[in-house]
What does this fold into?
Amino acid sequence: MTTPEKKVKGNVVAVLKALDAYYFFPATGGYGRSGVPDVVACLDGQFIGIECKAGSGKTTPLQERELQAIEDAGGIAILYSEPTMSKQDLKELLQRGEGNWQGVVSGGRQHEKS
It folds into this structure.
């Protein structure tokens, strides 16, 4: 059975693959760092952290700390939540090199692949 969040992660992966981005799902159990985004990616040399939520899921304080740290370091921090966002919304953010995790779009690099 596919969980709602697993479906959301699958949609994120579909967008990343379409843009030829490098990505992985970080392991956080035991030795990893708590709060790390669900998907870590690189597109056109830009570091990206994507936290995935389904329905009314909310970020935890640890997740918010990690997303902020990514943004502070010059990376792109994205909170991808369905049904609030669509795959097209995510694709457009990534193509523009922008994050949105605080409800405000930030960044500004352009990605040329359609």
Summary: Confidence is low (pLDDT under 50) at residues 108-114.
